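User: Reviewer 2 asked us to show a designed sequence for the structure in our supplementary figure. I'm pasting the structure tokens here. Could you produce the per-position amino acids so we can include them in the response letter?
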């Protein structure tokens, strides 16, 4: 397979902080690679350097598909004045310009302009491209295409940005935290889409199920270097543990040998022979190896929470609306000790509002909430704590407490507590403005836990935290003696932590499901399958009883053209798929041809599914 990206001896530092050095790796066509590192290790800087947005201190980057390359940043660059449609078609290639012109002209009544636009679409074969765009827009459930970008929520903006990069079908795509601000339904669709395409992918994400199901190689950044693992996230976890164990053994051996060499250095005669000088040089090399930091710092978050009485939190017949949008309708629930509840639902269904209601930040319009006298909330919010940029890290936590009570009744200093959270002592006197976004979120988490809460409320805690921090947060929550309510789209996090789910189904309805997310997904998929089967049976019965077919809303001229084009394209793709399958089974292909035909087959499958979904949507209306 051809090489897409070649990185050689790359280095980058900020002031005295060395992010990475001598990093080298290669990405080949169709590879899907995950980049994993703790916050502040330079993941985003590495992506920016590859994309040509940031300089490096040393090394080279060769991107062999610069003309077919897209980069989705954590915070997408979108023009707030554009409509959704204008933003999606804002690339400067001729096809998109022609389609954008056609879409504008078709809204008018100038027949000559419409005819010219149709002829231009025919000339560049723009119908197929436009159809594929509509399929992606449909799957991403984008809002009104005439709505301004500036009016959209964070999740809607992220979906627009995804549509913008997906419709170009780049040879190489970089994704920096693509799952942030997306609900689970969108994440699962994107997971399915990317796993089936032949696109070359380099991504940074904390979503471990996403990593496991999409990527086939992991690059781990740590200690200013990079380690490669040929496999998905589960394979990475297994091999990383082996590497850490081997590294620790090497350091221990070096430390044991150092004791012998130190004794020799003390007794060494003043005469410096060539052999003695060589041994001295070796001593200093050994000293550096023996003093190497043993990898895998662990966070000890077994903090002593405030005492909890018998009465915790009682929600009685609570209702709340934002205008016409119902968030709660007569919701009643009584929390019990050590209960861990996950909250899931589509973006905009009111999950964060619910958290504000139970903590008293918003008053319910009906019903009442009773909170136990001993309850002390720890509220980790999406927006986070607004730090004074010039404040030093140590002063941020000392404003909360000088010491922290830990689980065995002892206390530790605020500085030691910071050190547990991977803020080494030299960094304590660093100003907040020097921290990365992920490091700020980790510092915010420290400030919440330092207050010894007995009722933790976590609103999207997995956004912007590295996987190491998430692993340890999960370990802490598993042994936490208080109550936990967590809103997150991270399915892995939910599966490890929660006892049951509050599922926001819309229109103020909340279902209490007794299980974790994977169990809920299995139950939900089976329920949908049964409902679909029942719907088909009802339709068939109705059709057999009614001789006259009712007419639904008719398709526009443009949609009829799209439907006709889809029928042709699906038939052609199905034919091509059968031909490829016949070739693959013939046993007559050479290795190179076999690889090319296999890649084309893998690319056809999602294309057929996308086109079929759009065809079904249009044909249901064309009755």
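Assistant: Here is a per-position design you can include in the supplement:
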């Amino acid at each position: 397979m051809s090489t897409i990206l070649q990185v050689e001896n790359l280095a980058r530092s900020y002031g005295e902080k060395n992010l990475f050095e001598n990093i080298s790796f290669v990405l080949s066509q169709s590879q899907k690679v995950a980049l994993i590192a703790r916050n502040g290790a330079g993941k985003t800087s590495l992506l920016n350097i590859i994309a040509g947005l940031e300089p490096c201190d040393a090394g080279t980057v060769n991107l062999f598909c610069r003309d077919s390359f897209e980069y989705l940043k954590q915070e997408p660059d979108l023009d707030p004045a554009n409509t959704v449609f204008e933003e999606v078609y804002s690339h400067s290639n001729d096809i998109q310009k022609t389609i954008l012109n056609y879409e504008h002209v078709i809204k008018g009544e100038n027949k000559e302009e419409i005819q010219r636009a149709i002829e231009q679409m025919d000339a560049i074969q723009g119908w197929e491209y436009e159809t594929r765009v509509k399929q992606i827009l449909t799957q991403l459930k984008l809002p009104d295409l005439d709505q301004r970008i500036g009016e959209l929520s964070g999740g809607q903006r992220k979906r627009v940005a995804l549509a913008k990069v997906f419709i170009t079908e780049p040879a190489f795509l970089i994704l920096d935290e693509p799952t942030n601000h997306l609900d689970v339904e969108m994440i699962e669709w994107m997971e399915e889409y990317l796993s089936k395409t032949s696109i070359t992918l380099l991504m940074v994400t904390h979503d471990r199920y996403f990593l496991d199901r999409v990527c086939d190689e992991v690059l781990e950044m740590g200690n200013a270097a990079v380690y490669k693992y040929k496999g998905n996230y589960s394979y990475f976890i297994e091999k990383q543990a082996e590497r850490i164990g081997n590294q620790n053994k090497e350091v221990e051996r070096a430390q044991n040998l150092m004791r012998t060499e130190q004794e020799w250095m003390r007794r060494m005669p003043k005469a410096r022979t060539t052999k003695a000088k060589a041994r001295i040089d070796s001593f200093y090399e050994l000293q550096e190896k023996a003093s190497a930091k043993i990898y895998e710092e662990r966070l000890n978050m077994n903090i002593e929470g405030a005492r909890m009485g018998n009465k915790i939190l009682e929600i009685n017949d609570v209702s709340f609306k934002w205008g016409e949008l119902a968030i709660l309708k007569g919701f009643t629930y009584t929390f019990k000790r050590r209960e861990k509840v996950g909250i899931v639902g589509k973006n905009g269904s009111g999950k964060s509002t619910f958290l504000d209601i139970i903590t008293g930040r918003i008053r319910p319009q009906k019903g009442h909430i009773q909170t136990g006298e001993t309850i002390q909330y720890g509220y980790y919010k999406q927006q986070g704590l607004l730090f004074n940029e010039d404040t030093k890290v140590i002063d941020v936590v000392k404003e909360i407490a000088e010491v922290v009570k830990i689980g065995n009744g002892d206390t530790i200093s605020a500085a030691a507590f910071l050190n547990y959270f991977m803020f080494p002592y030299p960094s304590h006197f660093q100003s907040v403005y020097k921290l990365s976004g992920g490091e700020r979120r980790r510092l915010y988490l420290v400030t919440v836990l330092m207050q010894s809460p007995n009722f933790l409320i976590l609103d999207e805690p997995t956004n912007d935290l590295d996987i190491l921090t998430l692993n340890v947060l999960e370990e802490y929550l598993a042994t936490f003696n208080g109550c936990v309510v967590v809103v997150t789209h991270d399915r892995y996090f939910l599966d490890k932590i929660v006892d049951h789910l509050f599922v926001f189904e819309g229109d103020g309805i909340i279902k209490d499901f007794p299980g974790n997310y994977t169990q809920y997904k299995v139950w939900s998929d089976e329920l949908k399958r049964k409902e679909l089967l029942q719907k088909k049976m009802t339709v068939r019965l109705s059709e057999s009883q009614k001789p006259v077919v009712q007419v639904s809303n008719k398709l526009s001229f443009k949609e009829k053209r799209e439907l006709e084009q889809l029928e042709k394209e699906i038939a052609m793709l199905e034919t091509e798929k059968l031909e490829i399958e016949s070739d693959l089974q013939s046993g007559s292909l050479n290795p190179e041809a076999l690889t090319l035909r296999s890649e084309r087959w893998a690319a056809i499958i999602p294309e057929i599914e996308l086109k079929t979904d759009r065809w079904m949507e249009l044909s249901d209306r064309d009755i």
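For the response letter, you might also mention the following. The two ends are 47 Å apart (CA to CA). The first strand starts at residue 3 and ends at 14.
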